[in-house]
Amino acid sequence: MSVRITFLGGLGEVGRNCAAVEIEGRIMLIDCGLMFPEEDMRGVDLVLPDWRWLSERREDIQCVVLTHGHEDHIGGLGYFLPEFPVPVYGTELSLAIAAGRVDEFGIDRDFRPIPDGRWVREGPFKFQLIPVSHSVPQGSGIALDTSEGLILHTGDFKLDPTPVDGRRTDLPAFGRFGNRGVRLLMSDSTNAERAGYIPSEKSLEPSISTIVQRAPGRIVCTCFSSHLHRVQQLSDAGLAAGRYLSFIGRSMERNVTIGTDLGVLHLPSDRIVGIEESMHLPPEQVMIITTGSQGEPFAALSLMAMGRHRSVTLDETDTVLISATPVPGNETAVSRVISDLTRRGSTVFHSGNARVHVSGHASAEELKTFINLVQPSTLVPIHGEYRHLQAHADLAAEMNVPEVLVLENGDAVELDGSTTRVERAAVKARYIYVDGTGVGDIRPGLLRERARLSDDGVVVVSLLLTEDGNELLATPRVASYGLTDHPDEVMEEVAEEIEAEAYDNPSGFFRDVDQAVRHIVRRVIRNRVRRKPVVMPVITHFDG
Fold it and tell me: I need a surface site. Which of 18, 108, 214, 233 has the fewest CB within 10 A?
């Protein structure tokens, strides 16, 4: 019985991680993530995988298995489960983080935590979770025992010898699978271009501690709210310096509560204070840990940087520590926040000027070590932009992996006996946009229109015509938005040109009023301000 894996997201991009494994006509999803919008996706809130193919096979979907609790792996569940109410498996923490997001949608869920290393049977699927080290606790790889051999999925991982929680990537377990023979390995590619090894999380502690100890006033720290290892390190440094801890941001507060309840975080309750209470303490006794590491416009750190936070006003006595690197696409936003913080006089430490962050993804030497341990027959690089996938493929070729497949979203790979087949564009895997409460109702053409509006502005022309539409009853009213700082003279010329054309060439003008107006507006604007705005004629017929 063949095994087929179809990739719905996560290949050639950072986000939307989602793969469908099919055995005996049943389907298991590995991860169900989202992607945050890129700069040219104006007005879009989130981007989801394309599940239309699954909608056609609703009754065949067996379950979802999560590798870890990052948004790009779990963030789509709230949109997926209402349509496909299937069991979801993962570690206790991964499911707890996912539950915090899914419950916001008010939908029922069937979450089933499983321990590491225990085989689970769900329909025709037999799988287990394997511990891996990453930038969120309880990260996992997945082993699938199939009729076509062992299939391994690393999830996001690195080979950290001294992780904060002591939960290392279980190389002995991966080695045992390698000794059995691995038919297919799907492996994280994010840092495949980066030479050497990623430093251990523990290596940051001296630098973080020094920054905290030397901070003269308050210290404000930010990291991903799910990076509970880093939250622990920052908290430990603050506590050692005699500071109280205050947490800001809904996701940060929620994940700190989850981590504490599950014993992943160890924080003394008597040293945690609310943000309002922290304002009454001496600044040198306060550490604030907040959201906003990616420059999100409404996150607490961004509001502080702009001087708009309701409780915290930063000045030259404050120190800010940003313990994260920008996700691709967020570089400009993060840079802007750093500049705004600096403009306020605060001292800012970030990955560009201090040792305050290490990546959660394996670099080239770690990937080669892992390939050497597992020795797969076939490798499919996953999780990363296309150049990362290709760099990983090059490493695998260097390691003499018999078969390396660089795939893209929508492609499928099928294992059947000794044959490995690839079907390109097996399913459609387009972006599904979330815009407000709308899901999937934004087409690419609409984004192009939004881009035009943003870049060149809009001109609205209001015309009052006779009932038969053959005569202009009043001077056109013309308004522009986002076109020029001083539009009055230009808009007056537009109105004059339209009125002149209507009187001088009525047969041509009134034959197609919309087209005539657009032509005149574009001609005048092109000559006067060298732009190509969106033109919107608004025509009213007077019947009295």
Answer: 108
Residue 440 has pLDDT above 70, yes or no: no
The structure tokens listed for 94 are 């991964």
Indicate the helix (H) or strand (E) that contains 166. none
Which of 447, 445, 480, 449 has the alpha carbon at shortest distance from 462?
Answer: 480
125-164 per-position pLDDT tens digit: 999 999 999 999 999 999 999 999 999 999 999 999 999 8
3-class SS of residue 92:
helix
One-letter amino acid for residue 205 of the chain = E
Rounded-to-integer distance, Cα 544 and Cα 541, Å:
9
Report CA-CA distances (Å) from 335 to 15, 284, 348: 21, 27, 11
Sheet order of strands, 477-481 included: 477-481, 458-466, 534-542
| Residue 402: pLDDT over 50 | yes
Can you tell me which residue has the tokens 């996001």? 156
Q: Which two tokens stand for residue 445?
A: 């053409």
- Half-sphere exposure (Cβ direction) of 474: Cα atoms closer than 13 Å: 11
pLDDT tens sequence across 492-541: 888 888 888 888 888 878 888 888 888 888 888 888 877 778 888 888 87
Q: Are 134 and 157 in contact (CB under 8 A)?
A: yes
Burial of 270 (0-12, 13-18, 19+ CB in 10 A): exposed
- Locate 109 and state its tokens: 């869920």
What are the DSSP calls for 459-485, one per residue?
A: EEEEEEEETTS-SB-SPPEEEEESS-S
The answer, yes or no, to whether residue 445 has pLDDT greater than 90, is no
Are 351 and 202 in contact by the 8 Å Cβ rule? The answer is: no
Beta bridge partners of 247: 289
Distance CA 277, CA 524 (A): 60
**Residue 412, beta-bridge partner list:** 6, 423
Q: Which residues contact 353 (CB under 8 A, 6 or more apart)?
A: none
> Are 248 and 290 a contacting pair, CB within 8 Å?
yes
Return the number of other C-beta atoms located less than 10 Å from residue 267's C-beta.
17
CB 33 within 8 A of CB 434: no
pLDDT above 80: residue 481:
no
Closest to 119 (Cα-Cα) out of 134, 130, 107: 130
Overall size of the chain counted in residues: 544
| Cα separation values, 42 from 26, 37, 258, 452, 490, Å | 38, 8, 33, 10, 28
Amino acid at 482: G
- Cα–Cα dist 367/382, whole Å: 12
288 neighbors 221 (Cβ within 8 angstroms): yes
Burial bucket for residue 39 (CB in 10 Å: 0-12, 13-18, 19+): exposed
Q: Which two tokens stand for residue 72?
A: 């790009």
Asked if residues 102 and 87 have their Cβ atoms less than 8 Å apart, the reply is no
Alpha-carbon gap, residue 482 to 495, rounded angstroms: 18
Which tokens is 542 given?
């007077």
Residues 492, 348: Cα–Cα separation, whole Å: 50
